[in-house]
Amino acid sequence: MTEREEMCCESTEVHEELLRIVNETLPDETELYDLAELFKVFGDSTRIRILYVLFEAEVCVCDLAAALNMTQSAISHQLKILKQNRLIKSRREGKSIFYSLADDHVRTIIAQGQEHIEE
Questions:
Q1: 112 in helix, strand or coil?
Q2: What is the tens place of the pLDDT at every residue in 8-21?
């Protein structure tokens, strides 16, 4: 039996009660789209590396660039994406801007993902 055959039912039978439950609980398309977009943000290893640094401390772009051996420009580009998706926040102190995690949800999402891949 091929993998494709294993993924298909041998006969077509719609389970109406299950279908009703799914239709009542499935989020609307906008919410599903937003969720998919959020997970796309986690699809870049540089952004994941930035988040891991931010798990430890609030840092400026200079610190991130040095810690990750990247240019400030490359770091700034990724910070913009993380901030647009409300995963990080910033505050100005004099001439420096410091970045930190927006909330503990970010840490939880990463921890859950890491736990999943380590199973």
A1: helix
A2: 878 788 888 888 88
